[in-house]
Amino acid sequence: MAHTLDPKRTIAELKELRSFSADDHGAQRIAFTPMWVQVRAWLKSKLAALPVETHVDAAGNLWSTLKGKSDKCVLIGGHMDSVPNGGWLDGCLNVLAGVEILRRVAAQYDGVPPVTVRLVDWADEEGARFGKSLFGSSACSGNLDMDEARALVDKAGIRLPDALKEVGIDFENVKASHAELKDAVAYLELHIEQGPVLLDLDLPLGVVLGTFGVERHAISFHGQAAHSGSTPMNRRRDAFLAAAKMSPEIYEIAKRHGGVCTIGSCTTRPGIVTSVVEDCRITLDQRNLDAKGLASLYADARAASERFAKECNVEVSWERLWNIEPVLFDAQLKKFCEEAILETCGKLHLLPSGPLHDAAEVARAGVPTVMMFVQSLHGISHNKIEDTKEEHLELCVTAFDKLAEKTILAHA
């Protein structure tokens, strides 16, 4: 078996996967569905040709292990599941690049590398069916909120524990997957950027500094319903007016502290054309790589909401929906990642990840972690038009393999 890496084979396998797991609307690899089971079987068929042991853990994560001279483990991860009508590269590029790296490592070291190398396909990274992202990795890290997850229901009314049972997973035992992280010394993840930063810089590859922390809240303004024809403008207690003032304000807040702020939904009551709005509920998503910056985003938004409520003679209340702290990736692994990219294409960019990734959960579990990004055409993901130039796909597989080798040798 040749020792050389074959990035073109990874691209061919990505196209093969697309041929049976996508339709005219995009990828349909939703976790815990029959198509996902079929995709998993296809992945296992690719791994069967390698000298690896493959199994599914208590949380439904698939692990393929190339045993080395040392028990120390270098982990390579991704996810085969997609959102409905998703892109052909999101998640699966990571896994199939990992398969190609396993082939190269197995050949180069006659099946026994200096350290153990493990590939993981995390279960339900997207959370598309039940609304809970990072299911498999958060179960493995120990951070999964069991009570919250137990209550999740899909659009058809199927409970998450019942859906898991259908694919052979005992929900109450999912955190036993934490044992898989024993002896892990590094976790590496490749991913399409999903945004426009590398595209705008005309760069193929980037080193990911870490994942944004997130503050997610619902903000409700409470005024008074009144007839839209008979109520003078200066007498109104218009909840929507106060909420509307938040829209430009969050852009100013983001300018001050960095990161991003998004009002993603707005609901009014009574919601009829002939009434001043009595109640208005908006949702706010704030993200920042710096913990202090994230706290400032939240504090300024809260202060602004109270100021606008007073100006409009209404009341305001806040409800925390979800939050997660920022995760900074390992300094040594980031250095290896920089070297790998520079050796591959001579230039790079360092950037944070706005979206969440399984890598963040592994890092939270105490495993040194890094991510590499490859440019996304259009800066678009979670969409059938998601794409990356084939020459960039070849570059990312090559650079990711160099990162893996540097990490292996560092722990040999």
UniProtKB/TrEMBL annotation:
Cofactor note: Binds 2 Zn(2+) ions per subunit.
Keywords: Hydrolase, Metal-binding, Zinc
Pfam families assigned to the protein according to its UniProt record, in alphabetical order: Peptidase_M20
Annotated Zn(2+) 1 binding sites: 79, 90, 191
Keyword hit for Metal-binding: yes
The protein's required cofactors: Zn(2+)
Binding residues for Zn(2+) 2: 90, 126, 382
Gene3D superfamilies: 3.30.70.360, Zn peptidases
Protein family (similarity comment): Belongs to the peptidase M20 family.
Name this polypeptide is given: Hydantoinase/carbamoylase family amidase
Species whose genome carries this gene: Eiseniibacteriota bacterium
